[in-house]
Amino acid sequence: MDSSERRQAILEVLGSRGEIIKGSDLAAMFNVSRQVIVQDIALLRARGKDIFATPRGYTVMMENSGKDIQKTIVTRHFEERDIEEELNIIVDNGGTIQDVIVEHPVYGEIRGNLMISTRHDVSEFMAKLESEKAEPLCSLTEGIHLHTLKVPDEKAYKRIVLELERKGYLPASD
To answer: Which end of the chain has the least Cβ crowding within 10 Å, N or C?
Structure first.
């Protein structure tokens, strides 16, 4: 299989599964190094393919079936340990955290694709933050950040907002 055939096959695998696949798993599938997969993904993205890198691997955005709605919410926390509670509140109330966004004074908008929809995903994200000794993006903005959420309905979104507010994760509105 040549490189262009492999790239097409990567697109088919990502598109057909609709789930997140680790670069190392793709590398094993195609009997190449992970670095080759990283390069293939970069080339596919440069050609306009909507491939997202998340902390757990690669995925393509599936078309919305029309049932779920997308909302953006602004949250704030002061302690790194609060990240896990905030994310669990969202997933426990039916939300998927698609990304985290911060507004940086020099770089403008910085976005990290997350695709977190279960407590297991939250645990994996927190473990990766710790194992990589990575600073969360919100550390750049005194804890203020945005999340794009996918929720099944307005009731789920309202539950999320109420619980985040109750726990003090919503910044005071002026």
So the answer is: C
